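Re: duplicated header lines in exported structure tokens

Our pipeline writes sequence and tokens for each protein into one text file. With two proteins the header for the second block appears twice in some exports. Here is an export where it did not happen, for reference. First protein block:
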Amino acid sequence: MSCPGSHTPGPWLVWNSPYGGARIHARHEVTIADVISRGGADKEEFEANARLIASAPDLLGALVELMSIVEGVRNGEMELDSFTLQPARDALRQLSRD
């Protein structure tokens, strides 16, 4: 199963934005998004939002891999164990890092 659509490849990184929020960058300093706090979101919340956006390529990759695993398990071609779930765990763990 391949990744749907065409997007800027990861990794995406969170940098400080010149606008007072967070900026999501890809390779070659391509700006993906600016996350700016408006309407009462505190710094911790918009930084968490920025990390979530920046993890999108990894989350998409993990989802595609999990779908392949689920199809393999359903078809009896593979067994589900903790090792096969590691990419999804890694992608989710990335969200909680500072």
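Second protein block, exported in the same file:
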Amino acid sequence: MIYKVVLRQSEEGFSVSVPGLPGCWSQGATELEALENVRDAIQEYLSVVAEQVRGGEAPIPFPAPATGSRACASRHSAGGPSVHECCIHMLRLRLSLS
């Protein structure tokens, strides 16, 4: 499938979101890195939803992207995992799959 993305320049590089997949976004130091990272995020997002559907569960609504973005950014700035890794982790926790 092809998904439209929104790419924005930020102070730390580029952020990219997927409007068709609420809460699915990533970032990178360059445009290319951000787009590669969001490709991985889309695959992970769809994998988690597919797992949940196979298990007979209805997909759980996601938090507003801005909320997740702030949480990920604050964890990353504190020397934790990358924003991309943090958001994948938060998505898995939100869907109770980790």
